[in-house]
## 1
Amino acid sequence: MADALKISIVTPAFNSGTSIERTIQSVLNQNYPDLEYIIIDGGSSDNTVDVIKKYEHKLHYWLSESDSGMYEALEKGFAQSTGDIFGWLNSDDMHSSWTLSRVNEIFQNLPQVDWITTLFPQIRNPQGDIVETLTIPGYDKRAFFRGEYSAVSPFALDQIQQESTFWRQPLWEKAGSRMDKSLKLAGDFELWARFYQYADLVGIRTPIGSIVNHPQQMTKLNREQRLEEERTVLKNYSANLHTPVSATIRRYTTGLPARLKRIVTRSGYVYKTQIAFYDFTHNRWTLKPRYF
């Protein structure tokens, strides 16, 4: 395989002293050969900066100063990024030990793919142990704008897990090289909406990231605010959300045999997506269609 692609990871932080070391270690301990790790702290008043300084010799860049929130921090971080591949990991979440190697292999083997995420998002308990692995059948632009990856719809599949999502640097540029700083909790969701204007999301059959579920989790404490922000994003893109009737149709069509699913994709209620899977015969990643 060619030389490893440079991967830039940004971690935004604020008063994360009890969790950020575990996050940092989950990135650095992978020993990825061309990693550009960046941490942007929002002016923490606890020991967050002390933890960051402990690892500063392994960081590409770090900064601690007051900001307007996570999405300004991310913009600052990505502005310092020079990698081929971008991703971000919040200061209480974790990567798997194989994450960066798998991401590199997939993007090297599949130059036509611009962004990827896992079909098996994982959840950890406050101690950092994996306690649940979810399953998502696939990703589709129409499904996204029908609300199937947001709890705004009672028929949602699940969210696109930000911790497991990576994209090529040119896609970031096409989407404006920015985060929507008017949002507080759904900036990832808004970024996916912009990415979908330029490229389809490819699912991979490997778990690569995990969110740590704990009582002080921002999205848990402010769930209604996140949902309202997601509704606003979908409205801004003139999304056609599921109605009870359309969702019922969708539910019945997803239960069809695979052969019939291929036939009824034109109905708009069965989606065709591309899945990256490992071809053991040729020892490389390749794409395979899936209907869901």
## 2
Amino acid sequence: MYFQKINHIALINKWEIPELLGNSETLILGSFNPYNTISEEKNADYYYGRQTNHLWKIIASLIGKKTDYFFNNIDRKYEVMYKYKFCFIDVIDSIDIFSNDNKILNEYISNNIFQNYLDQKLFTSKTSFKDYEIQIKRNYNKRIINTLESKNLKKVIHTMGNHRIKFDFSTSPKEIGLGNDGFQNFVKSIKDHSVEFVNPSFSPSSYAVNKGGSEYKKHLNEWMKKNLNL
């Protein structure tokens, strides 16, 4: 069995800045942003940093700036995060991907993780690719629990959608058999803190916005304005 570990780009570029996390009142949880070792120029500069994503475009519009105001400008991102007291962390630190064939493994990673990436692919444990079985193991970011103990933090929201974390906080997948290392118990450990964990959720991904249309984007804008106090 061959395997590769794909790290979150936040671990490589040290996006979890203690001063920023400690200043924040709202924590935004996302899923995963793979560090592309094949084409590093394709890596995002920060959470939700790709131009196809709508999050920074919406924030820019809500504060009266042009939609491209934050593109490739991490200082502007930090400035608005400090001012409005919000920060980001993704729930997955890394993923381990397994296959019986090393060439197939590399091809799957290139075609489905470094390109054409969707959360639906990430949150499956087994899939097939060119008649080979691919197994995926997610390693969750336990540092989130330490962040929840910040004196300033008041609210947690997430951008994974109401299918991934439902209104009753049951999850897909559940991974109950993995105990504290599974997704359901990991989300439960977040919810059990005294910080408010908000549902519903809206994803700012181009996939979600294009699928949902203008009505979805309207709700996404309203949701972000309310929860980020913009």
## 3
Amino acid sequence: MGRWLLLLYAGLGGIHPQNEPQRLARDILQQLIDINTTDSSGNNTQAAQAMAERLKSGGFPAADVLVLGPNERKGNLVVRLRGSGARPPILLLAHLDVVEARREDWSVDPFHFLERDGYFYGRGSQDNKAGVAIFVANLIRYRQERYRPDRDLILALTSDEEFGKFNGVEWLLKNHRELIDAQYCINSDGGDSQMKNGKRLFQAIQAGEKVYISFQLEATNPGGHSSLPVKENAIYRLAGALTRLADFAFPARLSEVTRTFFAQMARVETGETARDMRGAAQMPPDPAAIRRLSESAYYNALLRTTCVATTLQGGHAENALPQRARAVVNCRMLPDEQPEDVRQALVRVVADDQISITVVTPAQPGPASPLEPEVVRSVKHVTDKMWPGLPVIPWMDMGASDGRLLRAAGIPTYGISGLAYEDSEIRAHGRDERISAANFYEGQQFLYALVKELSSGGGAR
């Protein structure tokens, strides 16, 4: 952890805040996790208003702290720390909403903050309430330090990034672009780095991301009484199609970003993994190296378009033959992949003209952002201060974020969080989501220093 290693709290075995900025960030994270912001039953506006009160209490004028949105549950918060205006603003982005979580699926309450054994538990602790808490705490710190940047710093905390009909970034771009217009954006919902055995492997700059699209596979049947079963069954037909899909993999294709990623990671890794990364980065790639790397879900997602069944519905009564069976297949396309090409690939794999395949969530592609020199310089500078010698590597995110919407609107966006996770600790969207206190506080310090450098006379030189 370098010079920012946090001290263990004597006798309790947990990592506790050592200063007021850390205490504030932890308290904000607790407040956010305790507010349910799911699409089904949560209230994003409540979270936005809570953060607005924090910022106004921290010294921000009410006129610079705005909660606005399309309805009473889908509020967004836009805050401006005013600078000298010497350069165009920077937008800081994080989202308030979280994916659904059921209490019976977790060992703890997903909507109640829990600190245990050096970890903070709760839905959104990784995705993306840690980013929200860090940005809010850091803005309050800048204000209390009377820091005056050479450009405005705009913080947007938005709704429906995960799911819902009222995406906050999309709504703000359409209705209030002037509030969030910026030279570029730093998105805390992206750019998480890898750790291995407690050691950071690299610092990521996410300049692009895969494209999210979902398809519905549906089989229909006349049905009938369950006492008179027949071979033709909508559930069985769909199950066969999904089994064929489970055995299918799209061909591996590397872009300039992913080829560079593997080439640079080969200098970090050792043994067969390093050799395979060099093999993947060469022209043409080594098929055996690609095959071995594909055994890792992480590297597999970097190498190819992926499609996976995520929801399943079938039948209408326990004593009736099913008249309908449906599955949603979520795909994460490589940035240059065409949606219709992916659909046609699914048609070939399913190989059943009695199963319809239709788009249910259309793709919203966004171009990759060119690497802004001052961003790269400043990330390298802050990274080297905190973790000397740690490489900074451009990266493509396998998931999707609101960065795609900003990129499509002409605002270059870079996913940079300062956080890092072991493969086994990536629990976003999953059971018992958590973030280590050490990781959280390091991310806070990293983003504090990075944003300050980017808004102080042009960043690192």
